[in-house]
Amino acid sequence: MNAVAETAPPYADSFAALQHTRAPDWLAELRRSAFARFTERGFPPERAEDWKYSNTRALQKLRFSPATTPPTNLGTEAIAAALLQHPQVQRLVFVDGVHVPALGSKHAAVPGLRITPLDTALREHRADLRELLLPEARWDNDPFTALNTAFLADGALIEAAGNVQVTAPVQLVFVSTPHTEACASHPRVMVTLGTNVKLTLVESYFGLDGAANFTNSCTQIALAANSRLDYFAVQREAQGDFHVSRVYVSQRERSRFASHVYNLGGEWVRNDLRVRLEDAGASVRMDGVYLADRSRHVDNHTRIDHLVAYTASDELYRGIIRDRGHAVFNGKVVVAEAAIKTDATQTNNNLLLTRNGEIDTKPELEIYADDVKCNHGATIGQLDEQALFYLRSRGLDLDTARELLTGAFARVVTDRIAAEPLRRFALEQLASALPQVAAEDGA
Amino acid sequence: MLSIKNLHANVADKEILKGINLDVKAGEIHAVMGPNGSGKSTLANILAGRDGYTVTQGSVSYQGQDLLAMDPETRACAGVFLALQYPVEIPGVNNVYFLKAAYNAIRKHRGEEQVDAVKFLGLVKDKMKLVDIDTAFLNRAVNEGFSGGEKKRNEILQMLVLEPRLALLDETDSGLDIDALKVVAKGINALRSPERAMVLVTHYQRLLDYVVPDCVHVLAAGRIAKSGDKSLAAELEQRGYDWVTAGASA
């Protein structure tokens, strides 16, 4: 055809460099096979249904090097806006994918809760690590998961044995910093809750001004019977940052998972969140807020599998699209034949504020069982004229009134967070992107 | 304070107001009455600057300024307040946050200092006692899930806090039981002062049992068909609107 030279597959250089680092055989093999899978599959083709509205061309064009040494001059004040304030918070901080112990919290360990940086676990050759990392890594032949596994090096293991109510929230902060050469990081987070465990987990993806990196994160969550995880993932990366995230959740009997995913930053963002309700009584609350402004691209694909009878899901995603932003929402709910008495609700509301903005929303319900209660709805609208007039008639100028209503549209989602201090933290994070959201309750 | 001259206005090409003339002086309370569809609410909404109305003729002057040329927020900052017939529910906006934002917006316009949360809360709590609103209301979303009576009381609370120069009340009394009506009347009377004017748009005479107006006007088919003192309201209550409107549409 034309004179395009045969080029090495993307990430080949980085992967070759990684081969030179010491690793146990099983890990080296795990990485090798994952990289082979990634190379074979490549980036998602443009015609792939799941990628119809999210073109990876820009991501493919960029070359990222792995970050090897984290900047030593970074202090907590630079990331203060991302930090959850709590007297007992258990925090790990990663800079461009690399764990930086100095930036973490120094609070006493919580009985029953084990938090281990992945690099530490690998260095110490933890015996069960192989069992932990192997089984789910081949998820759906997804190239980004394969890429994450190929570069598996850092992240966190969060494990709670049975019967603990952990009041101290856990926060993982992933900071993207400016470099002369953009870098890619592939954090892996594994969360395992035993029976009757209650835990709050925050994942914060934060970018410093001028950063233009690629974060390809993968979080795997396993919830045992009667456990409860309140999960808040907030993505506030820099204007040039790329972000792909995969979150896989499996839920056993009567476990509850409350997920709150906020996309407030970055340049190009694609999230896939998949939940499997594997036993009776398992339930999921799946909420999200996305802001697609400037030229930002934000794509949220969610999937909930109701696999057995008596499971419930309640999903609410709200998006704000303005300037030349482009948002995509695809919410799939699958109710298996055996999953009678499923109770599933899905709502996606979008505020399209500019002519040049774009939203592609697609709810997908696949129901193979009888006797279920399922409903879904997607809306695209503008600000309510009546409400605008009402605010203006009380003295608020038009811009303030618009901002207030825009913030309120998102805040409705935040107000569904039952757990404190999570709700308050979520409000603060929301207020960082939408200034007219009252960060404090009341006046 | 307010001078309306030969005001004609359309809603979707249909003429609703057909030449209204009305003068309201500071310190006065005027009641605008009339049957459904006579243009009462249209008049109130036009004065507050709501979209959807086209003024085809006439003028409105407020404190010597051309009211119709002003944005709704400019009118509010200049002291015009409309208590809505159907107050809007705004999920996600905290009631007291909204009230404080409005209060400070108006203060800013006047070149006055902003009031902080603590001070503002003290101020609001005093006013709340007057209208018998529970403090729990403050932290709820604006009007969301409020009963009809609660919404109207919330309007009166806003009015008491914002202390307008010209208050327009659009059927604030409709749908209220007698206790709520008394509370609303108490709020209105509390605001009565020589510097302030009020226009009460109402369908029934019963609010006027508690708030004594200086003038009563009957609107019929887009014009003021009859004006009088408070005794006119009592007469309307007895005789209905027909004897006035019959003359107007002729």
Structure at a glance:
The complex is a heterodimer of chains A (443) and B (250). Chain A has 443 residues and is an alpha/beta fold.
Written overview of the protein:
The complex is a heterodimer of chains A (443) and B (250). Chain A is built from nine helices and 21 strands. By secondary structure, chain A is α/β, with parallel strands linked by helices. In chain A, the strands form two sheets. In chain A, strands 1, 4, 5, 7, 8, 10, 12, 14, 16, 18 and 20 form an eleven-stranded mixed sheet that branches. A ten-stranded mixed sheet of chain A has the order 3-2-6-9-11-13-15-17-19-21, with helices on one face. The radius of gyration of chain A is 21 Å and the shape is globular. Chain B has 250 residues and is an alpha/beta fold. Chain B has a single domain (2-249), classed as Rossmann fold. The model of chain B has no long low-confidence stretch (mean pLDDT 91). The chains are: A alpha/beta (443), B alpha/beta (250). Chains A and B meet through helix 7 and helix 8 of A and helix 2, strand 7, helix 3 and helix 4 of B.
Mean pLDDT of chain A: 91
Find the structural class of chain A using helix and strand composition.
alpha/beta
Distance between the termini of chain B: 32 Å
CATH topology of chain B: Rossmann fold
Can you lay out the helices and strands and say which pair or pack?
The complex is a heterodimer of chains A (443) and B (250).
Chain A: H1 12-19, H2 25-41, H3 57-61, E1 65-66, E2 90-95, E3 98-99, E4 113-117, H4 118-123, H5 129-133, H6 143-150, E5 155-160, E6 170-176, E7 183-185, E8 188-193, E9 198-207, E10 214-223, E11 228-236, E12 242-251, E13 256-263, E14 268-277, E15 283-292, E16 297-306, E17 312-321, E18 326-335, E19 343-352, E20 358-367, E21 373-381, H7 385-392, H8 398-414, H9 422-433
Parallel strand pairs in A: 1-7, 2-6, 5-8, 6-9, 7-10, 8-10, 9-11, 10-12, 11-13, 12-14, 13-15, 14-16, 15-17, 16-18, 17-19, 18-20, 19-21
Antiparallel strand pairs in A: 2-3, 4-5
Helix pairs in contact in A: 2-6, 7-8, 8-9
Chain B: E1 2-11, E2 14-24, E3 29-33, H1 40-48, E4 54-62, E5 65-66, H2 72-77, E6 80-83, E7 90-94, H3 95-109, H4 117-131, E8 141-142, H5 148-162, E9 166-170, H6 178-191, E10 197-202, E11 215-220, E12 223-228, H7 230-239, H8 242-249
Parallel strand pairs in B: 3-10, 3-11, 6-9, 9-10
Antiparallel strand pairs in B: 1-2, 1-4, 4-5, 7-8, 11-12
Helix pairs in contact in B: 4-5, 5-6
